[in-house]
Specification:
By secondary structure, the chain is α+β, with helices and mostly antiparallel strands. Helix content is about 40%, strand content about 10%. A 6-stranded antiparallel sheet has the order 1-2-6-5-4-3. It is globular, with a radius of gyration of 20 Å.
């Protein structure tokens, strides 16, 4: 990573810039793969907010260039978020040697896992329940605009807001949260914010726990089931074996690994916990993005197949869509 003096075009007056050297890093796939919900693609760049920094990112084959609206000397917050120093080849070598995983790895090569702030990640995934990614982005944007602190952004790209702290949301009313169009998720977010603000759950302390213990703490929160807990464990804390199972991953497991027979939720869970190795969470994200982005995998079934009702045993896995 190397800071550079600013020489931006007249229409873009960024203050600080750094270049992070990368190898096999697909920035677009990473930021647009359902891990985080505050990124927009505009003018050939990705813009978003990390902590209290508005940032604009552009990638080429060997680097990621970051630009901010304020002077920055320490870029650790960005390098930690992007996780660009992870040896992707080593990770992919741990994936199981089967055709579905080989196809997903080849189609999504360069996809990485981000390392997010635990509170923002937890709150965002509470808001994700039964929503599509575009809707989650809208809800999160409204929440930040209404309750987050304003932060500097380059002219033409603002306004920008930090993600609201749990203490700020704990003081809100349920009606104020519902005004952000989060519906039934509002009481869950409010109750969780109050528990975190009152130190009844120390999110930083979860880093010290084993994955099963950390998960057990998270699922006690309102609106947090196994899938949301695993998203937080994977995308915020970096527990490598956390394997979130939502409707897309369920489809991937069923369609790619059990195409000729229906399997129940218990069988799918056991399979996800035992088949994908020490970087199972990474493998999950490849399967998730592969299933979402490849049209041939998302083709509607034939009429005779559509008449079949889904197995009731699969429904407990459907926490989000």
């Amino acid at each position: 990573m190397s800071p550079e003096p600013m020489s931006a075009p007249p229409c873009f007056h960024a203050v600080s810039r750094c270049v992070i050297e990368t190898r096999e890093y697909d920035l677009s796939a990473t930021l647009n793969s359902g891990q985080a919900f505050r990124w927009q693609f505009r003018d050939g760049h990705w813009t978003g907010v990390i902590g209290r920094h508005w940032v604009r990112l552009r990638a080429d084959a060997v680097s990621i260039t970051a630009e901010t609206a304020e002077p920055v000397r320490d870029w650790d917050w960005l390098t930690d978020f992007l996780q660009a120093d992870i040896d992707l080849t080593t990770v992919l070598a741990t994936f199981p040697e089967d055709e579905p995983m080989r196809a997903a790895a080849a189609a999504c090569r360069g996809l990485r896992l981000l390392r997010q702030d635990p509170w923002e990640c937890l709150a965002s995934f509470i808001l994700s329940s039964t929503k599509q990614i575009v809707q989650i982005r809208q809800i999160v944007a409204a929440l930040c605009e209404r309750f987050g602190d304003a932060i500097p952004a380059v002219a033409g790209y603002g306004p920008a807001f930090a993600f609201p702290a749990p203490e700020r949301l704990a003081c809100a009313t349920e009606a104020e949260l519902r005004a952000c169009k989060m519906g039934f998720r509002a009481p869950n977010l409010l109750a969780t914010a109050r528990r975190v603000a009152e130190k009844k759950l120390d999110l930083e302390r979860l880093r010290q726990f084993a994955v099963d213990t950390a998960r057990a703490e998270l699922v006690q929160l309102p609106g947090v089931g196994r899938k949301i807990a695993d998203c937080v464990l994977l995308f915020a804390y970096g527990f490598p074996t956390a394997f979130p199972v939502d409707v897309w991953v369920m489809k991937a497991l069923q369609q790619l690994y059990f195409p000729k027979r229906r399997v129940n939720a218990k069988r799918l869970r056991h399979f996800s916990e035992t088949h994908f190795g020490p970087h199972a969470g990474f493998a999950q994200q490849y399967l998730f993005h592969y299933m979402r982005t490849h049209r041939s995998l998302r083709q509607r079934p034939r009429r005779s197949q559509r008449k079949r009702k889904p197995s009731r045993s699969l429904r407990p896995l459907r926490e989000t869509s």
